[in-house]
Amino acid sequence: MNRAPLIFLGIFFCVAFSWTGIVLTNHLGYAKLQPVFDETEGKAFPQQLPGNAQRGKEVYRDLGCVYCHTQQVRHPGYGTDIERGWGERGSVARDYIHEKRVYLGTMRTGPDLRNVGARFAGEGGRNWHIQHFYNPAEVSKITVDGVEYGSIMPPYRFLFETRPVIGEPSAHSVQHLLPPKDQPPAGHEIVLTQRGEDLIAYLLALKDPALYPEEAKRVYVPKAEPAKEEKKEAAK
Ligand code: HEC
Fold it and tell me: Does the CA dihedral 127-103-109-183 come out positive or negative?
């Protein structure tokens, strides 16, 4: 008996079924999402990343930051992201509409970075990132049971360059931000490379707008933990 048509039909339905589930339903659900114009700000959100931050995003990809950091704030009820200060609200699909590649990430070895630009902003934020990339273990410490541990994030010193001062020292040198043990030899200075500048521009720009009007209803106060008795009741 010739089973070719049956096999063909089987394969066809498998592919059609997966395509409908994975491609078509998502396309219908999300492809038409548009930026929202905010009257008071006079701008449409989400905003495009500025050019240097776009380049910084490539550095972020290249260096594999995504292996340890996510970029998706979980909604209340799905985790404690908001209590931890990782965002004012959970992430929604509209936040990502300008992004060709989205670095949601899968592992949270470090904090979520979706709104890191709100936590570290401006000149102070830039300085912190410089110190942190140079020496994470010195900058971020936690104490557990009286023992102090330094960050396990690897240092990224190759984002800096130690070079001899020729003529005037650079206005952008960064060694004054670093501890005495990391000072360059006499007559030298430490500057960020272009990749380092771009990566920091990206981190400073990573910030989702407060809220899109029609999603206001999504913000809800997390449910109070049910008392132990109630939990037991529910389990029965
Ligand atoms: C091996 C895992 C690992 C990798 C890879 C990694 N990080 Fe981290 N990162 C951490 C951990 C753990 C912390 C928390 C402790 C600390 O502040 O250093 C952290 C903290 C941070 C923070 C501070 C966030 C906050 O809110 O306090 C930033 C910013 C950051 N990382 C950026 C990056 C960037 C950019 C890269 C890629 C160049 C990167 N990380 C790669 C583990 C990692």
Answer: negative
Give 111 Cα–ligand 1 centroid separation in angstroms: 7
Look at residues 89, 93, 92 and name the one whose alpha carbon lies nearest to residue 220. 89
Give the CA count within 13 Å in the CB-facing half-sphere of 229: 0
Q: Distance from the CA of 109 to the center of ligand 1, in angstroms?
A: 8
pLDDT for 123-157, tens place per residue?
A: 999 999 999 999 999 999 999 999 999 999 999 99
CATH code of the region 36-159+194-215: 1.10.760.10
Report residue 10 as tokens.
Answer: 């089987």
- Measuring from each residue's beta carbon to the nearest atom of ligand 1, which residues come in under 6 Å? 60, 63-65, 67-69, 109-111, 113, 116, 119, 136, 140, 151-154, 156, 199, 203
Give this prediction's pTM: 0.86
For residue 72, the tally of other CB atoms under 10 A from its CB is 21
